[in-house]
Amino acid sequence: MDGNDGGDGPVPARSVEGWVLFVSGLHAEATEEDLVDAGGAFGPVARASVVLDRRTGYAKGYGLLAFASWAAAAAARGGLAKDMGGAVSAEWAFLGGGGGGKRRR
Q1: What is the largest distance, in Å, between two alpha-carbon atoms of the chain?
Q2: Strands, DSSP E only, in the chain?
């Protein structure tokens, strides 16, 4: 799958590291290991990072989770909230064009 769902809006775009999700609503004591564990239920995690507050050392409440495959990232996007207690949400970190323009040949 290439990430294009056939809709008219923006579609997920692949980054250099793979299909990346922006994960928000993380607990202040969440770690990268927690993200890897949660994301690993949907497929191999290429990279995980939790953004930390420099002053306190605790998580700011968001991070990034990268998967090599679109299918794993799409499954995690829909399932992370269930696995991490419902307060967490995951959205595509990078979006491409919506298909409104002409294609180059």
Answers
A1: 52
A2: 19-24, 45-52, 59-67, 89-92
Q: Specify whether the CB–CB gap between 43 and 72 falls below 8 A.
A: yes
Structure tokens belonging to residue 63: 């991070």
Domain extent listing, the chain = 19-92
pLDDT band at 10 (very low <50, low <70, confident <90, very high): confident
Q: According to CATH, what is the number of the domain 19-92?
A: 3.30.70.330
Question: Quick one: which of 64, 82, 52 has its CA closest to 20?
Answer: 64
H-only helix segments in the chain: 32-40, 70-83
Specify whether the CB–CB gap between 42 and 48 falls below 8 A: no
Reading the block at residue 50, the tokens are 């939790």
Q: What is the number of residues in the chain?
A: 105
| d(C-alpha 1, C-alpha 83), whole Å | 24
Please give the model's pTM, rounded to 2 decimal places.
Answer: 0.80
Whether 92 has a pLDDT exceeding 90, the answer reads: yes
User: Could you give the CA distance from residue 70 to residue 59 in angstroms, rounded to a whole number?
Assistant: 27
